[in-house]
Write a structure and sequence with these properties.
Number of strands: 18
Order of helices and strands: EEEHEEEEEHEEHHEHEHEHEHEHEHEHE
Helix content: 25-40%
Strand content: 25-35%
Number of domains: 2
Largest sheet: 7 strands, mixed
CATH architecture of the largest domain: Alpha-Beta Complex
Number of helices: 11
CATH class of the largest domain: Alpha Beta
Mean pLDDT: 96
Radius of gyration: 20 Å
Shape: globular
């Protein structure tokens, strides 16, 4: 089978690997669609992010969906030929965090396409994938396989929304309108947000955010004062979802959050400094959000019912052999929102 392998920054190769057979409780999936994620782009563009670096060849990818090709012994509830979205979250379910229901903090997590541990966890950008049956979530008739491949990034945003607490009737600020930011807008709207304002530096992505649920969009590169106006009376927003990883966006959000507002940090970036006195004086809560686990099933259910429709986010699909071209386009925010590979 063919696989997509990162060796170092800008060194992406299509290689041949031997196929494996499904063992007990496992299924073999013919992967059909795979979305290029921000972390995939970090590996491609920079060889990693933060302290996480590619130290050995690694198959990329974790936003995948496909069709069941074979069933291992003892698998029930699934059938050959059925289409499934595959959760990349593979916790051990034995460590102290898993036993507390915090599987996203598993001490032995095997998340597809991750260079965090050594040896690296190989990813799902491959023509055949062996997965545990419990990772597979059925895709409804009438839902394109490309839509199903959005389940993973949607699950990320659903976990972020859960970290924020109830959004019913809340005023929400979303900073950063890449795929995660826009999916956060859609998830926040589905969870009852009363008003959503979105900011970014690019009009192209803000236009998408406006079409998919933001009540107002602000280009803070050309019109920063429009956001600053929300700082009156100690702030306007109840919740900020920070999806850019930018220190500037964090600081701007702290200025416009109301006392006891909540800042949920999704975006990855470098170390940053924050105005600690402002956080203290306004009693702001800073909350991280990391991956997901049980939210994957909800993401598939929402897509299956078209309660959340990710199709407007899909810019282009490339064949597997054009993976480098796909990664180059995916890294161009002026031209692309979400780019997928077809296997």
């Amino acid at each position: 089978m063919k696989v997509v392998v990162i060796h170092a920054a800008r060194d992406l190769r299509i290689e041949e690997r031997e196929e494996a057979a499904a063992g007990p409780g496992q299924v073999e999936i013919a992967i059909e669609a795979g979305g290029i994620c921000g972390s995939d782009l970090h590996y491609y563009q920079h060889g990693g992010f933060g302290t996480v670096r590619v130290r050995e060849p690694m198959i990329l990818g974790h936003e995948v969906a496909g069709r069941i090709a074979a069933l291992g012994e003892g698998v029930s509830g699934l059938a050959i030929g059925e289409r499934v979205a595959v959760s990349p979250s593979r916790p051990c379910n034995k460590c102290s965090y898993c036993l507390q229901g915090l599987q996203n903090h598993c001490l032995d997590m095997r998340f597809y396409g991750s260079a965090m541990p050594m040896p690296h966890i190989q990813g799902a950008f491959r023509q055949r994938l062996i997965a545990e049956a419990w990772q597979c979530h059925k895709v409804a008739d009438g839902i394109a396989i490309e839509e199903a491949a959005f389940a993973e990034p949607l699950a990320v945003t659903l976990h972020a929304v859960a970290r924020a607490g109830s959004l019913l009737g809340r005023r929400v600020l979303v900073t950063g309108c890449g795929p995660i930011g826009v999916l956060t807008i859609m998830a926040a709207r589905a969870h009852g947000a009363a008003e959503i304002v979105a900011t970014d530096l690019a009009d192209t992505v803000l236009a998408v955010a406006g079409r998919l649920g933001a009540d107002r969009t602000i280009n803070v590169a050309s019109n920063a004062s429009a956001l600053e106006a929300f700082a009156a009376n100690k702030g306007y927003f109840d919740v900020q979802f920070e999806a850019s990883g930018s220190e500037r966006a964090v600081r701007a959000g702290l200025d416009v959050l109301k006392p006891r507002g909540v800042l949920v940090q999704l975006g990855l970036g470098g170390d940053m400094s924050i105005p600690q006195n402002l956080v203290v004086a306004k009693e702001i809560e800073l909350r991280g959000t990391f991956r997901f686990h049980e939210e994957f099933a909800l993401a598939v259910a929402l897509i299956n019912r078209r309660a959340i429709d990710p199709r407007p986010l899909l810019t282009r699909v490339f064949p597997l052999d054009d993976a480098t071209k796909a990664f180059e386009l995916a890294g161009d925010r002026a031209r692309a929102m979400k780019v997928q590979l077809s296997f």
